[in-house]
């Protein structure tokens, strides 16, 4: 799942979370007590088995184990928030026992339950199947073969993991990468193209740099502040002092660097 990030608020906003919301570690522990799956992660989910039993419809084992929230990364924003169904198969010692029909029914029935309670929510077409490490490769091979069969098309959206690789797939614990402001990038590009012929022109540039720096610093985006400092240092490394004004140039540069926190020597 490329560019997918964990989105806990998405699953917490679903109506079923109020009564059936639990940590993945709690849900896994029901079937795999003391195994410690997801015990170090804060990943909220909905206990779908528990919800199905509360309906008292007579159905048994017809749902996926849980559902979590995910979102797509676009630029530096998380968008397209969805629900991702998750099935635990850590007890399997051999992937030969996998049933396409059983998994397909679990996905379809679980999706129906979720949409019934929240019609506007989007359930991802992906289905995360989690095995023990030593069985995961067998399961991947079997599902890859299913994908070649015309009557098992749903399997193209099934992804196999162990508990560790699943956390990595949703980038659990990773911060969303922050991108530099396009306006700031354009400003730096303009500064880099300026030709300085006099001290007055240099002072005008320095005043604009200071104004931009303090405005950026006030917004509090560290990625922009860091980018601005590095860019200003690079600009002055390429900038030549106006003819005969080396002394004034050095003083102005040193005062600017000290004021906005750029080391002269690094």
Summarize the structure in words:
The chain is α/β, with parallel strands linked by helices and 266 residues long. It has two domains: 4-169, no CATH class; 182-260. 48% of the residues lie in helices and 16% in strands. The protein has eleven helices and seven strands. Strands 1, 2, 3, 4, 5, 6 and 7 form a seven-stranded mixed beta sheet that branches. Strand 6 (123-130), helix 6 and strand 7 (158-161) form a beta-alpha-beta unit. The longest helix has 21 residues, at 199-219. The radius of gyration is 28 Å and the shape is elongated. The two termini are 40 Å apart.
Shape: elongated
Helical coverage, percent range: 40-55%
**How many angstroms does the end-to-end distance come to?**
40 Å
Q: Which regions are unreliable across 5 or more consecutive residues at pLDDT < 50?
A: none
Mean pLDDT across the residues is: 92
Give the ordered list of helices and strands: EHHEHEHEEHEHEHHHHH
**Beta fraction of the residues?**
15-25%
Which structural class is indicated by helix and strand composition? Answer: alpha/beta
Note the total helix count: 11
Number of strands: 7
In total, the number of domains comes to: 2
The biggest sheet amounts to: 7 strands, mixed
Please compute the radius of gyration using only Cα atoms. 28 Å
Topology:
Elements: E1 4-6, H1 8-12, H2 17-20, E2 21-23, H3 24-31, E3 44-47, H4 48-55, E4 66-74, E5 77-88, H5 100-117, E6 123-130, H6 133-146, E7 158-161, H7 163-169, H8 182-193, H9 199-219, H10 222-238, H11 246-260
Parallel strand pairs: 5-6, 6-7
Antiparallel strand pairs: 1-4, 2-3, 3-4, 4-5
Helix pairs in contact: 8-10, 9-10, 9-11
């Amino acid at each position: 799942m490329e560019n997918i990030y964990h989105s806990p608020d998405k699953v917490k906003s679903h109506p079923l979370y109020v009564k059936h919301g639990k940590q993945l570690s709690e849900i896994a522990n029901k079937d795999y007590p003391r195994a410690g799956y997801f015990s170090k992660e804060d990943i909220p989910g909905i206990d779908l088995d528990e919800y199905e039993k509360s309906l008292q419809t007579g159905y048994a084992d017809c749902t996926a184990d849980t559902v979590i929230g995910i979102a797509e990364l676009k630029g530096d924003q998380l968008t397209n928030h969805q629900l991702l169904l998750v099935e635990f198969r850590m007890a399997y010692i051999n992937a030969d026992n996998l049933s396409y029909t059983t998994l397909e029914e679990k996905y379809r029935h679980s999706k129906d339950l979720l949409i019934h309670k929240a019609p506007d929510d989007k359930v991802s077409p992906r289905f995360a199947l989690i095995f023990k490490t030593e069985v995961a490769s067998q399961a991947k091979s079997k599902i890859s073969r299913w994908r070649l069969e015309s009557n098992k098309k749903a399997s193209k959206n099934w992804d196999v993991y162990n508990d560790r690789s699943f956390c990595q797939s949703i980038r659990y614990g990773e911060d969303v990468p922050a991108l530099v402001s396009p306006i700031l990038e354009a400003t730096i590009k303009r500064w880099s193209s300026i030709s300085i012929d006099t001290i007055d022109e240099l002072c005008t540039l320095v005043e604009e740099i200071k104004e931009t720096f303090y405005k950026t610093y006030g917004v509090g985006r560290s990625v922009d502040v860091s980018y601005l400092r590095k860019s200003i240092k690079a600009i002055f490394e390429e900038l030549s002092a106006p003819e005969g004004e080396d002394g004034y140039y050095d003083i102005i540069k040193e005062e600017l660097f000290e004021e906005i926190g750029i080391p002269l020597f690094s």
